[in-house]
Design goal:
Elements (H helix, E strand, L loop, with lengths): L1 H35 L40 E11 L4 E6 L4 E5 L5 E4 L2 E2 L10 E9 L2 E9 L4 E14 L4 E6 L6 E4 L5 E4 L2 E2 L10 E9 L2 E11 L4 E12 L4 E6 L5 E6 L15 E8 L4 E8 L3
Length: 307
């Protein structure tokens, strides 16, 4: 009797356990089927409740860029000139410096660009613009800390060019700027100083073809010349000494960096007067006797100096 009771009890216990296992399996299958097949009462366009992950605002891609380093605290040098070229890919401008020579200057968002009292941007930098740049050395590159564009209302300016004409009755001087395809008109007044070799001279010396430096003030469409410095009159002889920085014998052009004023001069070689020496190369120290013909310096003789 005890053995029969044990068999019956064991069977009931086994059946209970088996039922529990089968029931758990069935419940798991039901959950699995619910997770795969959406109930017909739920619309396919229904979305899950918003969470903190999908309510965040979109990040600005610019905020992911690293901050630019601070500019070095070196002394700035002021350079004035005319923009010859703007390279917006390399953030670089080529400046034709007042008085001669060219320089490549880099800029970036750290550069402060102004026009008069207004803030400007790199988009306002265009070839032909006259600017004054506070430059510093950033490593081995020349960097623009501040760029000041000339304003059209009232600003100072400088020009170097060749006299096209001078009309005393109109008090008008027309100069073809070496950096601009269009001539500029300047008003000569009683207050204008006409200088030659450091002395005041008469305005009648401003004959066509004369090379001049002009310091002027612009107000609206009128440019008042404050000072006109005569650099060369056609037929005048000039002697230059210095180092050859560029040489193109195909066109007969030599660029010399003067040892006296450290400015750059373009000198054309007259094939009728100059026999090219084999020692004429970049870096050579030369002395050139030239004639100004009203547009350029033409070498009449060229001597290569030994070092």
């Amino acid at each position: 009797m005890d053995r029969l009771f044990s068999i019956i009890a064991g069977g009931i216990l086994t059946g209970s356990i088996l039922g529990s296992v089968l029931g758990s399996a069935a419940f798991g299958q039901a959950l699995a089927s619910q997770s795969v097949v959406a109930p017909s009462s739920v619309s396919p366009t229904s979305t899950a409740p918003a969470t903190s992950e999908n309510t965040d605002e979109a990040l600005d891609p610019a905020s992911l860029l690293p901050d630019l380093p601070a500019l070095p605290r070196s002394k700035a040098s002021l350079i004035g000139g005319t923009i010859q070229k703007v390279d917006r890919v390399r953030d670089q401008l080529t400046l034709q410096i007042f008085g001669g020579g060219k320089m490549k200057i880099f800029f970036d968002p750290r550069s402060n660009i102004v026009q008069g009292s207004d803030q400007a941007s790199p988009a306002d930098l265009r070839p032909g613009d006259r600017v004054y740049v506070d430059t510093i050395l950033d490593g081995s590159t020349v960097f623009a800390r501040d760029i000041r564009l000339a304003t059209s209302a009232l600003s100072g300016g400088k020009s170097q060019g060749v006299v096209v004409s001078y009309h005393a009755d109109k008090s008008e001087l027309v100069v073809r700027d070496l950096l601009s395809p269009n001539p500029i008109k300047l008003r000569i007044s009683s207050g204008t100083q006409i200088m030659q070799d450091g002395h005041i001279t008469a305005a009648s010396q401003l004959v066509p073809g004369t090379l001049v430096n002009v310091d002027f003030v612009s107000q609206k469409d009128v440019r008042d010349a404050r000072q006109v410095s005569i650099l060369a009159i056609p037929g005048t002889s000039f002697t230059f000494g210095g180092v050859v920085t560029s040489l193109d014998l195909r066109v007969g052009l030599l660029v010399l960096n003067s040892s006296s004023d450290h400015k750059t001069y373009e000198i054309y070689l007259d094939p009728a007067s100059i026999t090219v020496d084999d020692r004429l190369r970049l870096g050579a120290d030369v002395t050139a006797i030239t004639n100004f013909d009203g547009s350029k310096y033409v070498a009449q003789s060229l001597t290569i100096n030994s070092r």
